[in-house]
Amino acid sequence: MSVKIGNIDLGEFPLLLAPMEDVSDPPFRYVCKQNGADMMYTEFISSEGLIRDAAKSRQKLDIFEYERPIGIQIFGSDIEHMREATEIATEVNPDLMDINYGCPVKNVACRGAGASLLQDIPKMVAMTKAVVEATHLPVTVKTRLGWDDNTKNVYEVAERLQDVGIKALTIHGRTRSQMYKGEADWALIREIKKNPRIKIPIFGNGDIDSPQKAADWRLEYEVDGMMIGRAAIGYPWIFREIKHFFKTGQYLEKPTIAERIGVCKTHLEKSVEWKGPKTGLFEMRRHYSNYFKGVDHFKEFRMKLVTAASVEEVLEILFEVAERYSEEMA
Questions:
Q1: Cβ(152)–Cβ(176) below 8 Å
Q2: In percent, how much of the chain has pLDDT > 90?
Q3: How far lies 305's CA from each of 126, 161, 263, 294, in Å?
Q4: Do 236 and 263 form a contact (C-beta atoms < 8 A)?
């Protein structure tokens, strides 16, 4: 059975790339798409920023044909501003609009946006309705189980948001007060999926970091698909590995050093192309150690990579890495 969001056909059991601040920009999305992500989202975008025409918010609206299907994710605390931001984002022609009711970080949640709306369900419903009415695109929502352990209200949230017209719901299996600590609890996600009133696709998110876990949880929690976030950072191969495991029950070989270097180079090229040499190079620094996580004795190269002052210098260092590790493999 294919999973559909509006008329977007995502195939059977899609794997979605989570929207992550300062991570899921176009260069990162490019390498995830190449490695099997079925649907992706922009970094979350402030509705206030879009209305003020702030350069940083505007730049996050950049989407490319090869990324489709792609959703633009917005957040905010003012219903009227969310409506306006939806109209602005709709103009760049994404495949869907997504609302963030899950972000736990202070400067979002304490401003009355993101996960803080889990404390005010009527406002969340009104805001969602405003967004749905402001666009012809399908609207989806990402949220958490609740604000804290005493207020896990996502069961009610799912019904009420479906009633005002959302087309899919992604649930992160933690409360806001848990932030990213402890283990994600998917039991409540399963209950929502089993609720006979719920007709829209339900995606699970939180702690999917291996093909085995993805396969086990697919069976155990009966969701329609999974959203993967932190496990894809520096490891876009997670999508193809999970898909291969679903098909065959076998683990795919881990990426070789050559493959790691190849994807790292592609990411760097796209980064420089999109942000310009200075910012593109600087913002890649946070990714190098992730691409080579677990590689023995990589520390000296990591130090060189994060201090390299030009693209040429980075490429030289990556060439050295290739030389060093091909000798070791020989």
A1: no
A2: 86
A3: 48, 46, 15, 16
A4: yes
Q: How far is the C-alpha of 303 from the C-alpha of 289, rounded, in Å?
A: 9
Question: What is the distance between the alpha carbons of residues 226 and 121, in angstroms, rounded to a whole number?
Answer: 25
Could you tell me the domains of the chain? 4-248 (3.20.20.70), 257-329 (1.10.1200)
Report pTM.
0.95
Q: d(Cα 299, Cα 314) in Å, to the nearest integer? A: 15
The string of DSSP letters for 94-125 reads: -SEEEEEE----HHHHTTT-GGGGGG-HHHHH
Poorest-pLDDT segment among 109-118, 124-133, 229-238, 273-282: 109-118
Task: Give me the mean pLDDT over the 95-100 stretch.
Answer: 97
Mean pLDDT score of the chain, rounded to an integer? 94
The 10 Å Cβ neighbour count of residue 273 is: 13
Backbone angles phi, psi at 289, to 5 degrees: -65, -30
- pLDDT tens digits, one per residue of 239-290: 999 999 999 999 999 999 999 999 999 999 999 999 999 999 999 999 999 9
264 is catalytic: no
Q: Classify strands 8-9 and 4-5 as parallel, antiparallel or unpaired.
A: antiparallel
Q: Which of 32, 103, 110, 264 is catalytic?
A: 103
Burial of 182 (0-12, 13-18, 19+ CB in 10 A): exposed
Angle at the Cα of 183 from the Cα atoms of 180 and 189, rounded to 5 degrees: 95
Q: Is the peptide bond before 26 cis (omega within 30 degrees of 0)?
A: no
The residues near 150 (Cβ < 8 Å, ≥ 6 apart) are none
Please check whether residue 243 is in contact with residue 15, taking contact to mean a CB–CB distance below 8 angstroms: yes
pLDDT at 188: 96
Residues counted in the chain: 330
Cα of first residue to Cα of last residue in the chain, in angstroms, is 46
